[in-house]
Every structure is written in C-alpha cells, then in structure tokens.
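#onboarding

Welcome to the new folks! Below is a worked example of what a typical request in this channel looks like: someone posts a single protein sequence, and someone else replies with the predicted structure as tokens. Don't worry about understanding the tokens yet, we'll cover that in week two.

Example request:
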Amino acid sequence: MKVFLTGASSGIGRALAEHYAGLGAQVGLCARRGELLQELSDRWPGQIRCYPLDVTDAAALRAAADDYLGVYGLPDVVIANAGISVGTLSEHAEDLEVIRRVMDTNFFGMAATFSPFIAAMRQARHGRLVGIASVAGVRGLPGAEAYCASKAAAISYLESLRVELYGSGVKVVTINPGYIDTPMTRRNPFPMPFLMPPEMAAKAFVRAIERGSSQVVIPWQMAIMAWVLRRLPDFIYDRLLAKAPRKRR
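Example response:
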C-alpha cells in the first residue's frame, strides 16, 4: 500500500502514520516539524519519505508529491490531515491574520494536498482522497469563528470534489472527528464528551477509508450530537450556545 499524509508529526496524523507504516505501507509524511517526521523514518527505514513543509505552501506540496510519485508511484490513499485550531474573535483586529492562517491551513492546505494527485488518479481510475474535517464544521461555535468556518469549508469542498469525481474510480472520503486526545485538544478549557485516544481514532479512520465512506462522523456518539445540532431551530441553538465555554484566543 502507498499512502501520502499531511499533518503527520503529532496527534491523529502521527497515529495514522504509525498504523500504515506498521502494515508495511510506503508512506510519504508531511509536517512542519521535520525532526518528528525523522523519528518515524528511523523506526521504519526504507518505508517513509519525509517532507518538512507547511501545507499553505502549494509549491512545496507539489514538489513533495512529485518526489513521492517518482520514488513510490501513485499513492492508493492521500490524507489531508494538517490542521490548526485557535480561538478567534473578529472584533479584535489582531485576530484577522490568525483567521486567515486558520483558513489557509485547514481549507486551502487540503486543496493543495490533493491537487498534485487528482489527474493521475483519474487516469488510473484508482485512489482515495481523504479529508479530515470536523464535527465543528456542522454549526458555528462561539469563539471558534475561524476553526468552524474552515471545517465547514472543508466539508463543502470535499462534497464538491466527491461529485466532480463520481464515476471516475477515485473515492473522496470526508471524516468528521469529534474530540480526539491530541496536543491541540488538550488546550481546550472545557469538557470534551466522548474523547477518543488517537490510536483508536486512527483505526476507525482507516476502516472508513477502506470502506470508501462518503462521509463519516467518529466516534458514532458525536454523529448523534451533530444530527441533533444540525436540526435545532436557530432561536434554540443561539440560546443554548451563547454562554458555552470558548477556546482561548
């Protein structure tokens, strides 16, 4: 198996990298922290290509994709997992640049990850493009304007891509995690229901990828919560969420 993965240095991405490498896959790993990628490469020599980069740099991603294609060939699975989460408030002028950064990483970075592979996958009529979105993309949460907007954009983008590639042999899989125990979520100053260890989440993600699921929420309990939240009338939702705990800026 051949896998190309972004956001691979920690959290869900690292758990996915370890899972696929443990299966003997040839894995291309992208992340900003090259030293953490190298740790994985040292554990599975000959199986892993490391690409220290920022997913907002489309040229760097294309160069990494070209290298991977040249060494291993067309990947079976491309996973756009890189993402950042931080509390933002538009009323603060200094947050505007943070909002741009979140959107560039969580949304544009996903498109930039897939772009170098789509034409080759179409031609081969084979492959899976996997986007890690979030339950946070279902409805807006107070204090998380940028994060929720970026994940809502990712969900819509992945749906558009899925329809565009319908019948091509290329599957587009949208994964919407709830709360996963990662360095990113450990900063949250509020209770996180149904918190999952990253290793357990990675196994659930892989099952969804293997099935070629169009869209899945993990864990399943969060799927029920998302279903309820999506259907709440605005006047009820607004009242319930107005005083909800907020991610720190």
